[in-house]
Design goal:
Layout (H helix, E strand, L loop, with lengths): L9 H18 L4 H52 L4 H17 L8 H15 L2 H9 L3 H20 L12 H23 L6 H26 L1
Helix pairs in contact: 1-2, 1-7, 1-8, 2-3, 2-6, 2-7, 3-4, 3-5, 4-6, 7-8
Length: 229
């Protein structure tokens, strides 16, 4: 029988793992070893799905974090520049706003994600005070920059909130779990190959298992080939 390749993609392994677990469940066998393989593969596949989702989210969070960092630094630069403006209305507005942005400084872009989110929400409250808000509108470009910043910070907070409870569950990342799953599936292949010769009930199961693995290996091989062309 064919074995699953360890260089298969994470998503391919995840898809095949769920398919194999479903195959075992549909088999409705009294074979405790077979059923144990099925339950373990399903458990690992579920954990990997969470890890994949989390990996994708945090990849997106890196982008959002970079964007809000840039917007906050731009805010400070705008206010600092207008402090020296010869037009008094502009310089006075900047002088009023400057102590607020200076209180947080560019250093908040170097703290942990949740800390920066909290700092920016606090800055938003400070800069929304009636007299300060009026000064913000006086400085060209500042109001628009802050609107974008608050939106990015809210988006960032929203994307992280639903994953806080999963952090304790997600002890392994998707790549490590991929290796665990490939090893489990290949152990199942070895088991089916060993006992299938004397068990008619596993003949069709073994054929379907091999066909799925061969298709997955071929698809990944073709995808890897295209990447190198």
């Amino acid at each position: 029988m064919s074995y699953f390749k360890y260089n298969s993609t994470i998503t391919t392994v995840n898809t095949i793992a769920f398919a194999v677990a479903e195959m075992v469940e549909k088999q409705k066998s009294d074979d405790k070893t077979l059923n144990l393989f099925g339950s373990k593969i399903k458990e690992k596949a579920d954990a990997q799905s969470i890890a994949i989702k989390k990996d994708r989210v945090y990849s997106g969070l890196d982008v959002l974090d970079s964007q809000r960092d840039t917007l906050w630094k731009t805010t400070i630069d705008i206010v600092s520049a207008y402090k020296k403006n010869p037009v008094e209305t502009l310089s006075q507005a900047a002088i009023l706003i400057y102590p607020i942005v200076e209180k947080y400084g560019k250093k908040i872009t170097r703290v942990a994600y949740d800390e920066e989110t909290a700092y920016l929400k606090s800055a938003q409250t400070d800069l929304s005070a009636p007299n300060v808000a009026e000064a913000v509108k006086v400085l060209p470009g500042l109001d628009e920059t802050l609107e974008k910043l608050w939106a990015k910070n809210a988006e960032f907070e929203g994307q992280t909130a639903s994953f806080v409870s999963q952090n304790a569950i997600d002890e392994k990342n998707a790549t490590i779990l991929k290796k665990d799953l490939v090893s489990l599936i290949n152990s199942l292949v070895s088991y089916v190959e060993a006992v299938g010769a004397v068990r008619d009930d596993l003949t069709e199961f073994g054929k379907e298992l091999e066909a799925r693995i061969e298709r997955a290996n071929a698809q990944d091989a073709e995808a890897n080939k295209k990447k190198t062309e």
